[in-house]
Amino acid sequence: MSKQFGILAFVVLTAAMAALPFGIGEYGHGVLVGMMSYIVLASAWALFSGPTRYVSLATVAFFGIGAYTVAVLADHLPFGAILVVAGVIGLGVALLVGMATLRLAGVYFVIFSFGLAELVRQLITWFETSVTHTLGRYIFVEITTVQIYWLLLGLAVITLALRWWIEQSRLGLAVHAIGDDETVARHAGVNVTGVKLALFAVSSVLITLAGAIQAPRWTYVEPSIVFNPTISFITLVMALLGGPGRMWGPVAGAVPLYFLFEWIATRFPDQNAVILGLVFVAIVFLVPGGLLSLIDKWRARGSGEQSHA
Amino acid sequence: MLKVVNLTKRFGGLVAVNGVDFSVEEGEVVGLLGPNGSGKSTVMNLISGALPPTLGEIDFDGQRIDRRPPHRIAKLGLSRTFQLVRLTPSLKIRDNVILPLAFGVFPVFGREAEKRADAALEQVGLAGRGDRLVHDLNYIDQKRLELARAIVTNPKMLLLDEWMAGLNPTELRAAMELIAGLRDSGMTILLVEHIMEAVRALCPRCIVMSAGTKIADGSTDTVLADPHVIEAYLGKAHV
Known about the structure:
The complex is a heterodimer of chains A (309) and B (239). Chain A is an all-alpha fold and 309 residues long. Chain A has helices at residues 3-19, 26-52, 59-73, 79-101, 107-132, 145-168, 170-180, 182-187, 192-214, 223-226, 230-242, 249-267, 272-286, 291-303; strands at 137-138, 220-221. In chain A, helix 2 (26-52) crosses helix 11. Chain B has 239 residues and is of the alpha/beta class. In chain B, the strands form two sheets. Chain B has a six-stranded mixed beta sheet, sandwiched between helices. In chain B, helix 3 crosses helix 4 (111-123), helix 3 (93-102) packs parallel to helix 5 and helix 4 packs across helix 5 (139-151). In chain B, 44% of the residues are buried.
């Protein structure tokens, strides 16, 4: 597939996605927002975690920071300005946390990232109960569901374009090398800590913005709503299902799983968590390399040769 | 080219390298010998920046490099291979070699980098394999790829950590010719090696370590006949 054709297909797909809300009702708009939100979250998560293989469970920490920034500032600033502030806060936290933790290897990073989400949630809860004396806030922003969907679509386009650009550039070589062997990457001249920090920061800012953009959908937020750890796990599983090592992998995982989870939540509201867990386990066992790697396997079987993206 | 002064590395209570001094002149090929556990690989890791020294000073090409991270040392023109082959299997073979070019002092990327990577692959005997995967290579070819990655940037100095270990006699001859070619091109080389045939053929000078200290340094014939060296390798009874 040529580069021009790829770009054209991407533009056409984006236009088609932008036109989706026409002709469907408010319920459909809500579904679209949810789906696009997870497309952004899974793709942004994989931007850092895919090639570097640092499994982060901090997704909801940044998502919640974004949402809470909107909750605090909604009455004081225009929505666009709030998004900028949210992005800056997300960036600051990501750089601070990144510098402290990206030297941690493997499971220690996973545990820390999980703890971070809980820490942020507890800090905000403490602040709200003991300083402002209001746990829970109302958000009134003049924005329609379709506008939120379009903003998320724009964010998804930015996220995928960034991933594409990274994979084309020398940075792509560096991040894959880091995922394989950091020592090799360092000795090849790669500033490993700098690359990881930059990627973690970019990924975190995108996730923060995803949280901020859809905050007006809730009307009422409190820490337990926007810092729900299930969001981190769902994001992770979606990216794993599609294959976090590829640009379209997280999208390919997010779309079917989002609809599956929606269906499970309405059909079996009481057994929701159990079924989610079973799906997680099934994915790890059945498609360890991600859905898109299956296409490669089929192709390889057809041509009798191993291919590689 | 390289000057090491009072180099010391402690791991907790263990002194792996203890006050080692030596220097390597430009264009020299020097063998670093010693029994297993004598601290040779640790010295290599200290020079390349993989480990920070506990004490001592390392100067490379007129600059002090101890305390510098490995990516900055690499940019000064110091390359290495690893005792156990280390490659990046999620990258194609050619991209393994492009990596150090793309992150060198003068980054090269795109067509130019591909040309230079293919030239390096050809130099080590992997011509035409650039689009394949690392997993398609056997052991000797993986070692070749590692060497291609180390020399593609045309480094001032090359550290080879048992690069010839595990080769059969035919492969060894090819490997020795390859290193001799690099030597003839003027590259400064420090190599840790157990294969004496290769050491005698390639290194006019050797440094011998035992239990973390330097016990001999001089022309290869003299050093290998030194009673201290024989004792370190074989024990007192053989002196």
